[in-house]
Amino acid sequence: MIKKVVEIKKDIKANDEVELSWFDMQKPNLTAVSNKAVNFIIKAKFTHLHEDDILVAEDGYAIKVKRSEDNIYVFEFTDALNFAKVAYEIGNRHQPVMISDMNITVLDDISLVDIIEAAYKNDDIKITKTTGYFKANGKAHHSH
């Protein structure tokens, strides 16, 4: 049976937990399976979910939202021109980014394959595929 989440609360006791990726936490409509194998569906009234939100189902069953690590790529640049070019290309794909000093971190996404392949061929860019907690800068992944 699929549980329907009817509200989101904070600071109440949960019966269960679910680990969600950054991208899944941005979705207004989501189906997922909790750690105790409970299927649930949510239609968020807000823009997205946050870590430690408590999803309360119609029957009172409460599921705490936890962050999972994401598959990410970290680009490290030695010069501003390559940094700007890659940032421009990623921006044209409307992908969320984490930007820090001469670094850009992106989620592993099929729309970035050509940019990632080009970066691997560029000796002035170090690229690392890893897992980690993604937190986009600004109002990433918004709609127009």
Automatic annotation (TrEMBL):
Major location category of this protein: cytoplasm
Keywords attached to this entry: Chaperone, Cytoplasm, Nickel
One GO term of the biological process aspect: protein-containing complex assembly
Chain ranges of the UreE urease accessory N-terminal domain: 1-63
InterPro entries, A to Z: UreE, UreE_C_dom, UreE_N
A GO molecular-function annotation: nickel cation binding
Localization of this protein: Cytoplasm
A single Gene Ontology CC term: cytoplasm
Database matches in Gene3D superfamilies: Urease metallochaperone UreE, N-terminal domain (2.60.260.20), UreE, C-terminal domain (3.30.70.790)
Highest taxon of source: Bacteria
SMART domains xref list: UreE_N (SM00988)
Pfam families the UniProt entry points to: UreE_C
Protein name as annotated: Urease accessory protein UreE
Provenance organism: Poseidonibacter parvus
